[in-house]
Design a protein that fits this description.
The complex is a heterodimer of chains A (133) and B (320). Chain A is mostly helical. Chain A is built from seven helices and no strands. Chain B has helices spanning 20-23, 44-62, 78-84, 100-113, 128-135, 189-208, 224-239, 269-276, 298-302; strands at 2-5, 10-18, 32-33, 67-71, 90-93, 119-126, 151-152, 155-162, 168-175, 217-220, 246-248, 264-265, 286-294, 309-318. Classes of the chains: A mainly alpha (133), B alpha/beta (320).
Chain lengths: 133, 320
């Protein structure tokens, strides 16, 4: 047995099913609340409420412990995006507005933006092709 | 590997300072605790600098020294270099990740034995949040962690080494070599460091012509509960050494309820546990400390390299 196989064997496994179920439930609850918010206000207001709420919770240092408990259910929606930019700006504010916050604001969320745009462009292209056919 | 034997080198004084999480943990006898991560400063890095200064000032109040050998986990040893601006002492900055303290101890012992320097201060520190930022994510970012990872300990420790006799004698040391068993998981530092610890322990025992059982305790740095299991397994499998006196300092710091995964990590873990617990217990006369360092560089890991590791060994004898 190689050392890598030994490590693989002895390392405790994450309980993926439990994590998935927790994320499914919390994500679902968030979706339901969003639906209520949309019916009370509109889509934009709903998004703004989530963004502001998760930013404030990040500022108070609560969001990271919530992620620990609620798993990816609150990271995948827009709350996770807001959390990543707020935590990065809190982290780098001491390094200045340009070299600190400016340069690092999208440190974590940059991939989401880039590949979001790329996949949107590809899908839009495909849709355009389908319409032509 | 190279083994050095020392004469007339002793540990005379030490000062330990730890954070609030460590106060809530299992160790007592730590000299000073912090109330929070900032220690009255505006940035976390400034807090770590102040921690190091506090340790140096407290040691200076006990005795003067000529040279400081030390290091921490910050990029370019930023915090210790900043700290040393305020101390007009000769200074050697060293880095071997979490084995830095043991590296400092063996360098200091060699200088003392050759009568080149009278008194040397070996200093190290680590801070949970500065390391978190440097090696992983922003402090407030809620990244999900693997259940087998370790948590960086907030502490600063300094010790004075000299040729003035005391109860704590440094006998010998083995300078480890870098090993790499191809582990790439940054959350599994125990697995990265275990083979390094095993080969350094084996080399020390071979060069000193001793058996593992000859020591009352073999104390490793920050392998965690998983790493120590792997170390025992590697020792048994590759070096035919089977012993039950190997303990890990990282696993002795926190209580189960503190949710610190498999234990504490950082260069200050080993000296913190050594000075606040192990060295004070009468049953441990012959102590082998094994500083284990995962030489983790985020850039190289992102470029798909595996993580190398190193371990240094120092043998300490406590007179009754």
């Amino acid at each position: 047995m190689t050392y890598k196989e030994l490590v693989e064997k002895m390392t405790p496994k994450e309980n993926r099913w439990k994590n998935c179920i927790v994320a499914f439930l919390t994500g679902g609850v968030m979706g339901s609340i969003s639906h209520l918010l949309v019916s009370c206000f509109d889509v934009q207001t709903m998004l703004v409420i989530w963004i502001v709420l998760s930013s404030i919770l990040t500022g108070f240092g609560v969001f990271d412990s919530l992620v620990d408990k609620l798993k990816m259910g609150i990271v995948i929606p827009i709350t996770g995006f807001s959390h990543s930019v707020t935590s990065a700006s809190l982290e780098y504010k001491k390094e200045g507005l340009v070299t600190g916050i400016g340069a690092n604001y999208f440190k974590l969320a940059g991939s989401v933006i880039l590949y979001g745009i790329v996949s949107a462009a590809i899908l839009a292209g495909l849709r355009g092709l389908l319409c032509l056919l | 590997m190279l083994t050095l034997k020392f004469k007339n080198t002793y540990i005379n004084h030490w000062f330990t300072l730890a954070g609030d999480d460590e106060r809530k943990g299992r160790l007592s006898n730590i000299d000073m605790y912090l109330k929070d991560f900032y220690y009255g400063e505006k940035t976390l890095e400034a807090a770590e600098v102040k921690m190091q200064k506090t340790v140096l000032n407290n040691l200076l109040s006990k005795t003067d020294f000529d040279l400081v050998i030390g290091g921490d986990l910050s990029n370019q040893l930023g915090t210790i270099n900043t700290c040393m601006r305020d101390f007009p002492k000769s200074f050697l900055g060293i880095y071997n990740a979490c084995s830095t303290f043991v590296e400092g101890l063996l360098l200091a012992s060699n200088l003392i034995m050759n009568n080149n320097v009278d008194k040397i201060c070996v200093l190290t520190s680590s801070h949970n949040l500065t390391s978190e930022r440097q090696f992983r994510f922003p402090v407030e970012y809620g990244a999900l962690k693997a259940c087998y990872t370790t948590s960086t300990t907030t502490a600063a420790v300094g010790a004075i080494i000299s040729n003035i006799p005391s109860k704590y004698k440094i006998i010998s040391a083995t300078i480890g070599s870098v090993v790499d068993y191809g582990i790439t998981d940054v959350y599994n530092m125990g697995a990265v460091m275990a083979p390094a610890a095993a080969s350094a322990i084996n080399a020390h025992l071979f060069n000193m012509n001793k058996r593992a059982k000859d020591y009352d305790i073999i104390l490793t740095g920050d392998l965690g509960t998983l790493g120590i299991e792997l170390l025992n397994e590697v020792l048994k499998r590759d070096f035919k050494i089977s012993t039950d006196n190997i303990y890990d300092a990282g696993t002795m710091i926190y209580k189960e309820s503190q949710n610190k995964y498999t234990g504490g990590s950082g260069p200050s873990v080993l000296p913190l546990v050594l000075f606040s617990k192990i060295i004070r217990q009468k049953r441990y006369k012959k102590i082998l400390i094994v500083g284990t360092g995962a030489l983790h560089n985020p850039t190289l890991i992102n470029q798909k390299n595996s993580i190398p590791a190193i371990a240094h060994v120092v043998e300490i004898e406590v007179e009754s």
